[in-house]
Amino acid sequence: MNCTETSANSSPLPVQIIPISGLPEIVAGQNLARLIVDALRAHKIVPSDSDVFVVAQKIVSKAEGQLVHLDSIQPSERAKAWAIEYHKDPRVIEIVLRQSSSIVRMERGVIVAKTHHGYICANAGVDVSNTPPGTALLLPEDPDRTARALHEELTRAFGVRIGVIISDTFGRPWREGHVNVALGVAGIAALADYRGQRDAHGKTLQATVLAIADEMAAASGLVMGKLNRTPVVIIRGIEQFGASGTGRDLIRDPEKDLFR
Fold it and tell me: Do the Cβ atoms of 56 and 225 come closer than 8 Å?
């Protein structure tokens, strides 16, 4: 898939989104970097300088053993009451509550929670889709740490400057549909700060900070899809290799949040 990157000071640049297929079903303990390297070599894909690897959270969580068997969960009375009212599995609700540092909204059968990482998302990121029956998948414990590890291993394997994004699919307040966002980031900037620069009319930009890692994560979703079994893509043609950022850069400080 091709699109273009533009900036105020340059012509549009071609951008490619390259799917990496052929990865096996991931289980706990597997080395994701090695599997990605093997898949690239099998398809004769050679990473280029400035490529960004976007890796789906789901395979990261599986490799890191974040799969929970529901039979091991004893639901609390709170989870049971909520589950009865909204026809949910009380064990899943209990996992959501345990993965939450606080509940932002809990009504009409929907739980919006703040996770221990600081993300605000539905069900604290707990997922029961595309997992074996009777299981639920949690978010990675530290997506930035995982991104750094993948960045180091892939850089060693290919000897070029690359970036890594760990992505997940989140819903959005006030808009329908889901998009991929960046949870973990390594080797690239998470934000592109244009404040102080001048636009085409000579006006100084005051508040323009682009969530470039989220934009790349969202673009990856066009190729990953939900049923394509393509949990890794390469985005080629975007230069964001200034100071390396983190996924935490994208979490808004509570004192700046007007909506909670």
Answer: no
